Amino acid sequence: AAVGFALVVLFMIAIYYVPGLVASLALCLYAELMIILLYAFEVTLTLPGIAGIILSVGMAVDANVIIFARIREELATGKTVQSSVKIGFSKALSAIIDGNITTLIAALVLVSMGSGTIKGFAITLIFGIALSMFTALFITKYLLNVFYALGVQSEKAYGVGKEKKTINFLSKRYLFFGLSAAVIVIGFVVMGINKSQMDMALNYSLDFVGGTSTTMTLNEDLSIEQIDAQIVPLIEEITGDGNVQTTKVAGSNQIIIKTRTLNVEERERFANTMTTNFGVDANSITAETISATVSSEMQADAIKAILVSTILMLLYIWFRFKDIRFGASSVIALLHDVLVVLAFYAIVKISVGNTFIACMLTIIGYSINATIVIFDRIRENLRDKRDKESLDDVVNKSISQTLSRSIFTSLTTFFMVAALEVFGVSSIREFALPLIAGIICGTYSSVCLASAFWYVLRT
């Protein structure tokens, strides 16, 4: 998290100069306030909870990127720095509010209908949304005015926007539709193959299918970090997957290792590995079968919560944009993202556990936010449309105007998640890798698909 955060700060300063520095200071305050809230409300921090924080950091950066892009556009028209800052915040407000409220709706539904780790994800996400809006809309604005008052008044310090070349995205829409459909079909084919080979379409973890719990007493007191570094890789070699959970019994050298269900031969290899490499007494090793921790009721609750939140988001977007086609296009793009990431899970055979639901929810929240920024610009450009401009000109111009925002926000969120992938243990990496795939997919669907869906429905 620290490395990812540092990369975000360096990136923001390199791209946005003084506003980037201001955004970084606001993000530091955001992180501090988040820690205070987690402590004050005694929130248990889990992997899904971390996902909620990562998503809200991405949204906090996103709000700043939207504002700074607007400020640069105003500076390019010849306005003063003070005037550009004021107008930039005003024009960015609707996209920031709509993007955050749609994600907030989903989070509130998950708190009321979800259970366990899903509720933990939603609570940290709610905290993050509230703090990200506060820091972006108030702290960033205040600090920009402070820097200006201190004498940082040159337009060059804020960056003057350049005229963006309009890219004809809509002309490639059927190519994008075909590419997405092909990936989704391949995903379902691989799920069918997995079903015939493993008797499971996806590589369900211990949380869903249960497994084997092995208890043993080590000759020395190893820390969790040492267990993850020295013992877990040997166990993964035996089981053939990264679905290994370790627990250390407090005040003793006893450890519990949970894996997928092991056959007799694998249990013997397990015991031999521990006695040979760590001198464990074979008589101290006991194994038992454990059942799943995620019940069918919990799974049903999660699906209901996602369906309800999707319907409410659709209604909110319909109400705000006065056109149900915006809401319908957003939902189709979200369904696309879920199916593509599901295909990724199936093809790479990543373990599907408790974090799977949080991962999917993170991707949905991230994608809807990116889509709304583009839709907000389409709505604005339709209002200001010139007589000679066609509908496809407006859509292409809107996507092109928000393209840098889409790329920069994806990069900053990518830095956070990539750091988890590089530095994390296997359980963290199995959580981070699908998130990386989801960030790429969410950006692609927002830029290449969502507006194209709306255009097709409109015409």
Q: Can you give keywords for this protein?
A:
4-stranded antiparallel β-sheet, 459 residues, 4 strands, globular, mainly alpha, 15 helices
Describe the structure.
Helix content is 74%, strand content 5%. With 459 residues, it is mainly alpha-helical. It has a 4-stranded antiparallel beta sheet with strand order 2-3-1-4, with helices on one face. A hairpin with a 5-residue loop joins strand 2 (245-248) and strand 3. Helix 12 (354-383) packs parallel to helix 15 (426-458) and helix 14 runs antiparallel to helix 15 (426-458).
Write the layout of secondary structure elements.
Blueprint: H1 2-16, H2 18-40, H3 47-76, H4 81-113, H5 117-149, H6 173-198, H7 206-209, E1 211-217, H8 224-239, E2 245-248, E3 254-259, H9 264-278, E4 286-290, H10 296-321, H11 324-348, H12 354-383, H13 391-401, H14 403-423, H15 426-458
Antiparallel strand pairs: 1-3, 1-4, 2-3
